[in-house]
Hints:
The protein is an alpha+beta fold. The chain contains one helix and three strands.
Amino acid sequence: MPEFFQTRLGRKFYEADVPRLITAMERIANALEKAEARAAAITEKGEMEEGDRCPKCMTDNVANEGPPENGQLEVTCHDCSHQFVILI
């Protein structure tokens, strides 16, 4: 009886599925690193980063309304008055 890696399913697993899993894990790790860096910058400055946008009207005319609390930063859009929270 052939070993798993010798079967068609085994070859697909090692040649296609595992590389896709590794790529997905690398993307997740990169996204987490960016989120951590962003959270650290917000925590240090108590401000939002350039390029943050309102999820309602997509303008970047937004500002935080105070210092971060409990890992959250309250934000208000100055164009549409939408208030939202950024998790840090």
